[in-house]
Specification:
The structure is a single chain. This protein is of the alpha+beta class. The protein contains two helices and ten strands. It is 17% helix and 32% strand. The strands form three sheets. Strands 3, 4, 5, 7, 8 and 10 form a six-stranded antiparallel sheet that branches. A two-stranded antiparallel ribbon has the order 1-2. Strands 6-9 form a two-stranded antiparallel sheet. The chain is globular.
Length: 157
Amino acid sequence: MSRYTPTYALPAFASTDRVRDLADIDYQNALKLEAILQNQGQPPLDSDLATLMARTNLLPWTYPPLQNGWTNDSAQRVRYTKFGPVAFLQGRASGGNGTTMFTLPAGYRPGQLIRLVALNGTGSAAALMSFPIDTDGVVAVGTGNDANFNCMWLAEQ
């Protein structure tokens, strides 16, 4: 990702990324998120993505129990947290193949259905896959059985 919003340096897909069809939608959502943070008086974060991720690692993370045959990768367990109105989801799980992985609790759920992008597989066999998170908090992987993700969205208020 080489495109960032101007004030908070939120990462967004660029037209050169492999998911170029999502680039404009993703950037517009990042700008909306930035406007909400500005309206709430949140100070801008460091523009360095590594610094932003280091700050999220200082937040209290929840490790949900996985369902339907999904199992955590031992080095990258599935976890979620929240910073202001922004929910973060990270981790890697395998084995579920197109089923519900877990359900987010109220307060972490999106206000509307969102479709996020994750990697399915590793190395040269890796492919992009989408997974929806609905307003009921269900995190379901539509295709594939090896989900590797690091994403964020505006949580319900």
